[in-house]
Each structure stands twice: as structure tokens, then as C-alpha cells.
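G., the chain you wanted modeled:
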Amino acid sequence: MLLPFEGAEPSVARTAWVAPSAKLIGDVTRHEQSSVWYTRIPPRSLVAGVPAKVKRELAEGDLERLRRNADVYVALAARHAAARAGGPDGNKTASPNA
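Predicted structure as C-alpha cells:
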């Protein structure tokens, strides 16, 4: 199931496979030859491995660290986007390959 959210819709490549019970919501892209399978992951779970397995429930401290890390990466992405677009000083950042 593909569901729009906040004006963005999922994009699924022609060769990607999405399980009928899966839900892709909002700004999600599935590229060529990718897949989304059936398994439902319980909330607050640590999942690892190939194939993926639930290892344990995340404690509140784990969740707080994940939130802090997410905040750091969101800010980093914004700084990177601003620099590539012509950051606060108005100068566009040169590509290292230019």
C-alpha cells in the first residue's frame, strides 16, 4: 500500500517488489531491484542480521540516544544542503571533483 503524507508520495521503481501487506508512507523511494517484505517489526525493537531478527526491546535510554543522533544528522543534512546551494555567505561550495 502506497500512502501520501504531507504532500509527498512513495516512489517505487518498476523492478522493485513490495509485499501486498507492506505500507510505504510519504517521502519513500524504492530503487531498482529492491524489496520490502512481509514481516512486521514490533515497536521499540533492535533488529539486526541477515536475515534480520529482533534482538531485544529498546530501553528508554536507547531511544533517547537514537533521538539525539537523529537530531545531529538532521542538522548536518541541513548544513550540507545549505552549503551546496550557496550557504549563509552566499558562496556555492565547489565540488571536490571540479
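The helical segments are 60-86.

Shout if anything looks off.
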